[in-house]
């Protein structure tokens, strides 16, 4: 019965107050942001706060959230809270690899900094996008939304805690997404500020860039079991983790793959690092606590005792 660290995706609209407080109050978090700034060339103050410059925001948000997740893990480590299992979704998968000891933190940060210039749409003349989409209970992606040219299933974040629906991620060309959304109630579609079709075949150029960069990185076998969100498996080898980096760009992510494998491995408590997953929005097969502000650190320690979860040595 163990503790799992869960690392979520890039969030372009998170409320930064909690991370700013962690940066100001926790030396380990501040140190991680300082290192990220040194490794990437972006000022720490830009990484802690959401920037208004849209040309920089995607990269600084990825780097800043990666620093936050690693810094929070370090603070919890100082309190004796270390994961027996780790796993991530999208951005979180790369950060989880660093947390598992499968790749140096610096190299992950440098990868995030260097992929930005090649991160544009497949066709500049046809904007891309993505949306969180409601899937009513009892219906599948295929029979509810059907198949539509220019739209791809890109993720499944699981059942909402209300039990009324699942939340999917759809990506593709923005005009095709808009046409699809027009046939449903407005509240069924929540469009992201992302300007690319994440986790879809349209990202093949970005996948090739990540694969080329990953080939130069120093991957090793994870020291902590690392669960995948691309398929229900544990990544035991350096080769599998390296492959996850490029696959992660074009393949759908599924929270159930991650959490289901963690449950099978005996997870008693999940700890979500940073403002990377909707708080209390989706079901997990075990209790979960969220850490994105200083006061949440004590919540983790209390939850470990409450659920009798064992810590990694």
Structure description:
The longest helix has 25 residues, at 54-78. The protein has helices spanning 17-25, 27-40, 44-48, 54-78, 91-99, 105-114, 141-145, 174-181, 204-214, 238-250, 255-264, 296-306; strands at residues 2-7, 85-88, 128-136, 151-159, 165-173, 189-191, 226-227, 234-235, 253-254, 267-273, 288-291. The strands form two sheets. It has a six-stranded mixed beta sheet with strand order 8-7-2-1-10-11. With 313 residues, the protein is α/β, with parallel strands linked by helices. It contains twelve helices and eleven strands. Helix 2 (27-40) packs antiparallel against helix 4 and helix 2 packs across helix 6 (105-114). Residues 20-308 form the Malonyl-CoA:ACP transacylase (MAT) domain. This is Malonyl-CoA:ACP transacylase (MAT) domain-containing protein. It comes from Dactylosporangium fulvum.
Structural class by helix and strand composition: alpha/beta
What is the overall number of helices? 12
Distance between the termini: 13 Å
Shape: globular
Give the biggest sheet.
6 strands, mixed
What order do the helices and strands follow? Answer: EHHHHEHHEHEEHEHEEHEHEEH
Strand proportion: 15-25%
